[in-house]
């Protein structure tokens, strides 16, 4: 009889928290959301980042996003919070120094989030935004079938994260896999990171647009004057449109970017024997205009048998990757009796 009463009491206990809260911090927007234990994004809010304002103003926006997440009826079921931030980051200290948020240098973001009333008492896990993307794609996206993969974001910059032996490998500070700052052109142009000839300076959307302009490409304008050239769309997306229309300079700009990225993927494959490279970000939206030369150049650079044959895939999660990946970082945060789902384990060794 006592056993039956104990079983009945167990049935009446409230369910253990099972959701994850996520925060995605970038120079353009700060997003927050709720993610289920299976990786489904259940709720999303977003505010613009006051990137040129004070550190306090940016933090106030983070807190407002957290307020909005906490107002959702499901928020009480949150067991941990994950943060994916533009970097560099330092996961040991919980700090961030985003290049595109000048007011934050060694900013203690993890502690600042942990002090929010809607977060207090819950574990908070910090990671870089590209590492979060890798966690998301391994959990729910294109990298899911692979135990060893490089997941790359090619946008205004170039970032990446590594999946090694089925685990997310962050490195001690959280910056392992930072592909964008591998040198592939020994005599290349100086990079803001302090080196030169970095992949980011050759393969990013910014680099594609610059390479096209320097080679003589000009965006289409109704009247070809200095004024219209100044206001016409000279972005990588405009270069992609011109390339699809057959412009040889625009096509060469994409080919050069793909070649630089292929060299970086081949170097990674040689070092750690990855099986797949998953590519997302704005430049990947160019589709085969970018992926065809990327695969072709990769076949040239990854020549050794153990490095050859890397599968190149487009990322699947799109704009959801930041929040899903931030949540994935917090999956293994230690909470009592909390359910978990199969996903990459953060490995900082």
Automatic annotation (TrEMBL):
InterPro entries: ATPase_NBD, ROK, ROK_cs. It comes from Kitasatospora aburaviensis. This is ROK family protein. Belongs to the ROK (NagC/XylR) family. It comes from the Bacteria. Gene3D superfamilies: 3.30.420.40.
